[in-house]
């Protein structure tokens, strides 16, 4: 029986490493499509979590609904905006 030497011997480890490199290879950033930029809308508010003293929260909530707007206005005034 003759051995066919025209075929390359397959090495499972090399095949696995080549497959891993093909999957994990980073694409150049220039070739990657640019992500669309989010439209900037004036006056949009962002939801945040803020820790404030209970007394401060109660002060702004005592006048009822709109307390978040009042806190925002006070913060803008304090920041000079």
From TrEMBL:
The record's listing under Pfam families reads:
BrnA_antitoxin
Tell me where on the tree of life, at the top rank, the source sits: Bacteria
Q: Where is this region: Disordered?
A: 1-34
* Xref: InterPro entries: BrnA_antitoxin
Basic and acidic residues: compositionally biased ranges: 1-11
Name under which the protein is recorded:
BrnA antitoxin family protein
> What species is given as this protein's source?
Methylorubrum zatmanii
